[in-house]
Design a protein that fits this description.
The protein is of the alpha/beta class. It has one domain: Roll (CBS-domain). It is built from six helices and eight strands. The strands form two sheets. A five-stranded mixed β-sheet has the order 1-6-7-8-2. Strand 6, helix 5 and strand 7 form a beta-alpha-beta unit.
């Protein structure tokens, strides 16, 4: 599993275009280990009312994200023997909380992903949040002022 780390400098200004990842991300992360069964991953999503779980390797580093959409690929199949590692695809993309939302959206669109893992600064370097495309859409709707 490859990890792409993207760090951006803080952007000054006002308005939605100048928001940073930390302004919209969900603090706290639901995690699991690579060896956890997919059944436990699915139950964790339901119990925590989240759409993704960050998968940690043996060292506690993020090595992937499993979304509810990823799990639906296994609908109708026997999943009891599958683990989180069996479901992981592609690279995990980690982003600095000071990245501009606009840069995060470019990454999501280019990589065709819906969730970015937000990491703390070293030396801990642990997942501290998740930015979902739905977080950005919610902010867009709020900016329209329609209720």
């Amino acid at each position: 599993m490859n990890i792409e780390k993207l760090i951006f400098s803080q952007k000054e200004g006002e308005g939605m275009a100048d928001l940073l990842v930390r302004d919209l991300m969900h603090l706290g992360v639901v995690t699991c280990n690579v060896g956890v069964s997919i059944c436990e991953v699915a139950q964790s999503m339901v119990d925590n009312a989240v759409h993704c779980v960050v998968v940690l390797d043996e060292a506690g580093e993020a090595c992937g994200v499993i979304s509810d959409l990823d799990l639906t690929k296994f609908y109708g199949r026997e999943i009891k023997s599958l683990t989180a590692e069996d479901v992981l695809e592609g690279n995990v993309i980690i982003v600095d909380p000071n990245a501009p939302i606009s840069a995060a959206m470019v990454i999501m669109l280019e990589k065709h992903i819906h969730h970015l893992v937000i990491m703390s600064e070293p030396p801990l370097h642990r997942p501290i949040g998740v930015l979902a495309a739905s977080d950005v859409v919610k902010k867009m709707a709020e900016s329209c002022g329609i209720k």
